[in-house]
Amino acid sequence: MFILLVVRPGLENEVYEKLKDRPEVKEIYRLYGDYDIIIRLSVEGIKALDEFHDKVLRKLRGIEISETLIASSY
């Protein structure tokens, strides 16, 4: 699954630094366009996703919008 983030200007590096070493975050990249950061996340189920969202993302200063994409293989 992937999470797209819109971050308040000037706080992108702070958000990146707080997320990059989390065990759930497998990859994290800067984006150009409507979103600022994309995270590839690995969690065990929706409950773990809810916990990551509520206990990690919502507590980070600077995140204005998040959009979660649950991907499926063909």
UniProtKB/TrEMBL annotation:
GO MF assignments: identical protein binding
UniProt protein name: 74aa long hypothetical transcriptional regulator
Gene3D superfamilies in UniProt: 3.30.70.920
Stored Pfam families: AsnC_trans_reg (PF01037)
InterPro entries assigned to the protein according to its UniProt record, in alphabetical order: Dimeric_a/b-barrel, Tscrpt_reg_AsnC/Lrp_C
Domain Transcription regulator AsnC/Lrp ligand binding: 12-71
Lineage of producing organism: Archaea, Methanobacteriati, Methanobacteriota, Thermococci, Thermococcales
